[in-house]
């Protein structure tokens, strides 16, 4: 009983939406002729904007500063020396940009074989526990260990394949 009243309510709501949009029951919401064609706005064969071209705002800014670039730089340096924090930040960001990552000071054992990976992972866990490494730094180091392990495994497989091929050649002769 509740399902049939619910479906009647749904049909009524659908009817109201259709009448608000100017349609009647059975009509589609949009006809094919009204629908906008999707896709690229360029005609076939038109490559679009050339690579390396600048937008109009950048071109106008370059034209305004073209003959006065040295004077503008001198003024910014003067403002920075006078204590203007925004000018100082701008100069420092250009001259001495912030580092993306920091060097990590952790003693890691050399990884020469797949058995060495366990001691390297243990040293990372020890550094995390002692607070010398953040989890993000440990994650970066574990990626390095993983890549090292992949390289060692690839080298081992290559050596084994070469040994098998050499043995097959000896057996063939």
Question: Keyphrases for this structure?
Answer:
173 residues
Structural description of this entry:
It is a single chain. With 173 residues, the chain is mostly helical. Among the domains are: 59-95, no CATH class; 116-172. 62% of the residues lie in helices and 0% in strands. It contains six helices and no strands. It has helices spanning 2-20, 56-65, 69-82, 85-95, 116-130, 135-172. It is extended, with a radius of gyration of 34 Å. The N and C termini lie far apart (87 Å). Mean pLDDT is 80; it is low at 27-32.
- Strand-residue fraction? under 5%
Cα-atom Rg, whole angstroms?
34 Å
Q: Give the CA-CA distance, first to last residue.
A: 87 Å
Morphology: extended
Number of strands: 0
How confident overall, as mean pLDDT?
80
SSE order: HHHHHH
Low-pLDDT parts are 27-32
- Number of helices in the DSSP assignment: 6
Largest sheet: none
Structural class, judged by helices and strands? mainly alpha
Helix content: 55-70%
């Amino acid at each position: 009983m509740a399902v049939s009243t619910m479906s009647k309510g749904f049909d009524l709501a659908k009817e109201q939406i259709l009448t608000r949009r100017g349609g009647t029951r059975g009509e589609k919401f949009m006809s094919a002729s009204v629908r906008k064609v999707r896709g690229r706005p360029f005609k076939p064969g038109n490559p679009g904007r050339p690579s390396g071209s600048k937008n109009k705002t950048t071109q106008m800014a370059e034209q305004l500063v073209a003959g006065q670039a040295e004077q503008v730089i001198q003024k910014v340096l003067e403002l920075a020396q006078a204590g203007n924090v925004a000018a100082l930040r701008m100069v420092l960001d250009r001259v001495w940009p912030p580092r993306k990552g920091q060097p990590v000071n952790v003693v890691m054992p050399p990884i020469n074989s797949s058995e060495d990976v366990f001691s390297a992972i243990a040293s990372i866990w020890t550094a995390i526990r002692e607070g010398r490494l953040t989890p993000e730094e440990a994650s970066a180091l574990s990626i390095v260990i993983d890549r090292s392990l992949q390289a060692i495994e690839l080298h081992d497989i290559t050596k084994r394949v070469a040994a098998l091929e050499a043995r097959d050649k000896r057996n063939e002769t």
